[in-house]
Design the sequence.
């Protein structure tokens, strides 16, 4: 399967279609694409937010957002990039698309922001499937947590260089 990332104009996020998720998956991944677009538009530091489509075999398979600099959440290390709103359409799950997208994100970070040494994320403590996925990808728990949109979220981190070795 050929998987790539395509940086998109933030104004086009709300129009993204074809990512099929269950209601709970969508909630854990940051809500609807329209909701994500609205929150991004309202952010005072949106220039540090980089939305990507995940393309698999020439079709939209998912979405992710990378944040850096002033757009980093409080829980992220200053030398990190944070991963948000990660979602893979149900039809593409468990086929390697998500893991490949994480590796592609690491390569993009290394190329465009070589000073960033870590990729960090938060995952809701009730989202066991996502936590297991991130741990399989190589993320490690930092021991930190914060109160997120839907409750307590644990912070995970992985060195960009470690993710790149998985390609």
Sequence:
């Amino acid at each position: 399967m050929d998987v790539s990332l395509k940086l998109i104009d933030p104004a086009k996020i709300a129009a993204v279609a074809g990512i099929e998720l269950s209601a709970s998956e969508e909630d854990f991944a940051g809500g609807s694409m329209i909701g994500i677009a609205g929150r991004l538009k309202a952010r005072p530091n949106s220039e540090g937010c980089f939305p990507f489509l995940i393309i698999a075999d020439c079709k939209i398979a998912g979405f992710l957002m990378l944040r850096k600099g002033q757009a980093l959440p409080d829980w992220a290390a200053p030398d990190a990039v944070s991963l948000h709103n990660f979602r893979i359409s149900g039809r593409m799950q468990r086929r390697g698309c998500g893991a490949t997208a994480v590796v592609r994100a690491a390569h993009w970070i290394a190329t465009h922001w070589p000073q960033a040494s870590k990729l960090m994320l938060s995952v809701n403590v009730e989202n066991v499937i996502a936590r297991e996925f991130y741990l399989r990808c190589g993320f490690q728990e930092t021991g930190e947590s914060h109160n997120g949109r839907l409750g307590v979220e644990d912070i995970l981190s992985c060195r960009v260089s470690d993710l790149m070795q998985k390609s």
